[in-house]
Amino acid sequence: MTPTLLLTSAGIVPEIRDYFISVLPKKKPEENKVAFITTAAYGESKNPTWMEKDRHSLHDCGIKHIEDLDLKEKTQKELEQMLSDKDIIFVNGGNTFYLLKWVRESSFDKVLPSFLKRGGLYVGVSAGSYIACPTIEAATWKHQDRNRVGIMNFEALGLVSFLITAHFEDKYRAVVDSAAQRTNYPIVALSDEQAVLVQGKKVKVIGEGKQECWNGFEEK
Q1: β-strand 88-91 against 65-69: which pairing, if any?
Q2: What is the pLDDT at residue 142?
Q3: Which one, 109, 132, 161, 209, has least CB within 10 Å?
């Protein structure tokens, strides 16, 4: 089974909604069960109101089974049990450093490969997309995230071979230009109307707007 990833800037926005529905593991949206990972959001705010928007977008697609899951202080065994009946892992945005800390400490990074292998869909939103990359170095660009947890090793899940920078606007172009000179990884910048859809070896930028990329990023 080839892994399917939907790496977004701002969740299931109208511009990518049809793509999301087309790659659901189960044909009928209401049959899909979602693990709604809240960890990054709570690393950024005690009251992360933006997650409600993501819940509503899933409901609007016809998805009814959504279970919150915070990776903090979970064990590998607990995660395996909680994910055993899920079809979609939806990793919310927030603080990327905090998220990566608990991805490692909970062994989520060890549990995820078997989930993908059995046909599960991984959806990332901002920080949730960053951790799918080889490193989370893009979270240090544009001064978006603060490294409050003191992570020194930025190595991430490596589900894709490129870096994503989310919430891209033209005012950040010089910042990304500079960052591109300091990394060897290809880079794709996503506006809030865009995402990257990965199906096995196939990579496609979806949504609306110009494709912005550096260091030889290309669709396959």
Answers
A1: unpaired
A2: 83
A3: 161
User: Could you write out the DSSP letters of every residue in 126-164?
Assistant: THHHHTTSSB-GGGGGGG----TT-----B---SSSSEE
Going from the C-alpha of 96 to that of each of 103, 128, 168, the distances in angstroms are 10, 7, 16
Residue 116 structure tokens: 């993908």
Q: What is the pLDDT of residues 46-79, one digit of tens each?
A: 888 889 999 999 999 999 999 999 999 999 999 9
**How many CB atoms neighbour CB 133 within 10 A?**
27
| Look-up of token digits 């919430």 | 167
Mean pLDDT of the chain: 96
d(CA 126, CA 129) in angstroms, rounded, equals 5
At residue 1, the pLDDT reads 60
Contacts of 98 (CB under 8 A, 6+ apart): 39, 40, 42, 43, 44, 148, 149
| 114-117: long-range contacts, CB 8 A cutoff, minimum separation 24 | 115/83, 115/86, 115/89, 116/1, 116/3, 116/4, 116/159, 117/1, 117/3
> Which pTM was predicted?
0.97
